[in-house]
Amino acid sequence: MRVTPSRRLAGLVLLTALVYLGGMTSLVIWLYIVAAMLCGLLLVGIAGPLLTLRGIGVRSRGMRASGFVAPLTQDSGLAFEGDRVVLDLEGTGLDPDRLLVGPLLCAGGGELAVSEVRAGADPARVEVVVDACPRGLHRITGVRVVSGWPLGLVTAGRTQRLEVDVAVHPRYACVPVLAGSARGAAADDPARRGGAGEIANIRAYQPEDDRRRIHWLTSARAGELMVVERTPETAEGVECRLRVHPGASAEGVEAGVRLVASVAASCTAERRPVRVRLPHGAAVPAGWSAIRTALAGWRPGAGPDGADESPAAVEVTVDRGGLRLRVGGTTVPVDPALTPDELAAAVEGIR
Fold first, then answer.
1. 238-348: CATH class
2. Closest of 137, 150, 89 to residue 110, by C-alpha
3. Which CATH topology does 56-169 take?
4. Rounded to 5, what percent of the chain is helix, strand, coil?
5. I want to staple 81 with a disulfide (CB 3.0 to 4.6 A). Which of 135, 147, 159, 333 is the partner?
6. Distance between CA atoms of residues 329 and 292, nearest Å
7. DSSP codes, 196-225
8. How far is CA 309 from CA 175, 180, 200, 223, 328, in A?
9. Which residues contact 271 (CB under 8 A, 6 or more apart)?
10. pLDDT the model gives residue 231
């Protein structure tokens, strides 16, 4: 616990000493009473913050985020770059009127600034709000708690242990499948064009069946409506690679990560297999959930990109010159300052 005296403490000590000395020289009894009252204020002002912090106990009751509405339903409730992250804390002595809560301390020495502390659902809870949380995997190991209650004569602070993992993912936008990357799964989706793939079965029509699946020739022969069940065709996969050169700006790197996330999420929305390759040999397992988590924790290294020069269907390159997107044989520059939706519009422009 760290205690820092304020100027009020020095002023009150000086006032107490002057009143006491005045009582000694003038022998006025009421000056002794005033001096005793000032001594009592000193004790209360010093002991108050220490006792307030001594009775604190904190534990996490969960986290939620608000701000970015994720296009994919499976990402609902997750935290994304720039979101407001709200931690629900429960414990003893958590009175926002007596305490200053924050910042949140992260593993490795980082900090997350707290923008607001508000009362929770009951007196034993508080909600700690972190605005504009940056992309990354944040392991919160503690929270700094400071109190100067009730007189502000001294300020006492302590670090309260806390174990919370906050994953902040890159923002993204879902766009139509890129024409130059590979053949789209949307064209092969039986639900969109009435059927594709090999015939697996023909059965009687049910009320919940899509009318586009009715096989009219078989229905005419059977005297009742018959529908065709087909095996789904396998969509052609897309490989997306992120390349970051030394000297690339932080703004460009973040835009590149958002662009890669948008490509991967778009393929997922179109039910296309997608794989992402990150610099320095970072392997990302297949699947949007794994890609999203890998992009949340990835940071550019100090060395150049790996020597892997095998072609990728979609390539995002970040260097000193800015951000470039290559789809098939077409390469276009992209403004790193664009929002995810504006990045999506830039991607659609090269279909």
1. alpha beta
2. 137
3. Immunoglobulin-like (2.60.40)
4. 30, 35, 35
5. 135
6. 27
7. -S-EEEEEE--TTS-GGGB-HHHHHHHTS-
8. 27, 19, 42, 60, 15
9. 185, 189, 235
10. 55
